[in-house]
């Protein structure tokens, strides 16, 4: 999921309100690491994509740093990154404000991810071996166990591993990088905590593996696209429920 149909980081948040992705925004803590600003950016990106930070809301440097138990510097760097992505804007004398997020943006993000993933899947179909198929089946079994157990962290890790192995077989390093860049806008934990999404992911992986074994390229395309179509529909439904488009 980190580099698949649903991927980003493992975020958390900012004021005291409850998030649908799990936990409260005020309870989040991040570790101090050289890549800390990237972690903060992933964290804030998740909150924006799930409307826990709503369009028009200001993200305060000091408040965010305190809630994440980090200094102001990585928060400022993260917000500069998000400004470059168009997710926030800098309002003079006021600070960073969350930008609008519309349905077209969501649809476009998942369309882009799906098209790249299909290209990688068709390359995989040309070269995948029986041993590699067995490895993918094992990865999907780990995902199945995690979904059944309701362990969202294990679900995230297993989904990521499945697609990492898959994309290594395709040997498209640049395409895989572009896919990873696109999926960082996907709120990973929103999906990982949804058992219905997990069931779809496991079933789609099973059918994708079967399509590879049968040499059925049409079904490879169908099952690859299925995860992105499902992911887009779930995120749109979630955002509709938050009322940001009312």
Automatic annotation (TrEMBL):
Residues 1-35 are annotated as: Disordered. Keywords: DNA-binding, Transcription, Transcription regulation. It holds the Pfam family GntR. Residues 34-101 form the HTH gntR-type domain. This is GntR family transcriptional regulator. Residues 1-14 have a biased composition (Low complexity). GO terms for molecular function: DNA binding; DNA-binding transcription factor activity. The keyword Acetylation does not apply. It comes from Gordonia desulfuricans. PROSITE patterns: HTH_GNTR. Coiled coil: none annotated.
